[in-house]
Amino acid sequence: EAKRQGRNTIVWYTTDFHKRAQYRLMLAARLHRAFENSDFTLQYQPQISTQDNTVIGVEALLRWTPADLPPVSPMEFIPILEETGLIVPVGTWVLYQACHQAAAWQRAGLPRMRLSVNISAVQFQRGDLGETVRMVLAETGLDPALLCLELTESMLMIDTAQSQQKLQELRDLGVRLALDDFGTGYSSLAYLSRLPVQELKVDQSFVRRLHDTPSDTAVVNTVIAMAQELGLTLIAEGVESEEQKSHLIGRGCTIIQGFLFCRPLPPDQLALFVGQEGHDEPQA
Ligand code: C2E
Ligand code: MG
Ligand code: MG
Ligand code: MG
Q1: Helices (H) and strands (E) in the chain, counts
Q2: pLDDT tens digits along 216-256
Q3: Nearest in space to 202 (alpha carbons), one of 188, 215, 221, 186
Q4: Domain EAL spans what residues (predicted)?
Q5: Rounded CA gap, 235 and 198, in Å?
Q6: In a 3-state reduction of DSSP, which class is residue 56?
């Protein structure tokens, strides 16, 4: 009986693995055509200052909506874009599209707000990111000081000298640099203090478990203290409850991003949200 169960289990896993591999191949083929089909769009999630409830910035988030498939999460399709190298042209499109939108909002008279764009490790290592960013800023006319590139710890740990040079090249363009998903990697305080970054985003997994797990509370408190010590801007993301918000404010974290305030929105809805006065009423 046990043996038969064991065999069934193996068969089940094999089939499941096979199905997943096939599904990913199908997605990869679709992603190759996503550009021509105009299947990519961007949504923007506000980052709120808790001091005056104003939107100080937005994060651009890529959406892929193929006509004949149910929505696919970025957690699923970004790794496929990275494996196929497609993330380089798609990442350039994201940068251009988002900067173009942000510049248009400024021209339309919206309050001055920053634009954060996620950069993949593959884009950072393989593409000529400095040249791409320089070109995009020149073409869209966005003030470089309004652009913030979100990088991750893991991509900066590799090849430190070359990474340092690439980061400096980006800084010389006048853009801001943020470390996304902070706390999930292995950065030491000494390492962090040598990086030319201006911003830390504490990973949402810690924020989510703020009041469940003492160790996660400790991580959040420590990252906030670290950011203050190093003079870095800190953003907490994934904030969903008033309880999380008050804890963060109590510790001195004043910029938050999360469903408590606003979900990622299409551009027209974002402009409406920013146009409203005060954002102290949490939106579902
Ligand atoms: P991220 O950069 O850490 O972005 C934040 C993610 O958290 C977004 O998920 C956002 O929708 C979600 N989020 C924000 N507030 C809350 C909240 O209160 N609760 C919960 N449960 N989630 C919240 P999304 O859009 O699915 O993106 C997932 C990841 O995919 C991003 O994580 C980023 O790593 C990657 N990604 C998205 N767009 C791009 C892009 O244009 N380029 C690259 N390279 N990566 C991207
Ligand atoms: Mg991000
Ligand atoms: Mg990320
Ligand atoms: Mg993040």
Answers
A1: 12, 8
A2: 899 899 999 999 999 999 999 999 999 999 999 999 999 99
A3: 221
A4: 24-278
A5: 11
A6: strand
**C-alpha 21 – ligand 3 centre gap (Å):** 24
Q: Which residues surround ligand 2, an ion (CB under 5 A)?
A: 118, 150, 180
Start-to-end C-alpha separation, the chain: 51
**Using CA positions, which residue lies closest to atom 10 of ligand 1?**
264
Please give the Cα distance from 102 to 137 (Å, whole number).
11
Yes or no: say if 97 and 261 are a contact pair by the CB < 8 Å rule: no
| Ligand 1 atom at minimum distance from 91 CA | 42
Distance (angstroms) between ligand 1 centre and the Cα of 79 equals 13
CA of 198 to the centre of ligand 4 (A): 15
Could you tell me if the ipTM is greater than 0.90? yes
Each residue's pLDDT tens digit, 41-76: 999 999 999 999 999 999 999 999 998 888 899 999
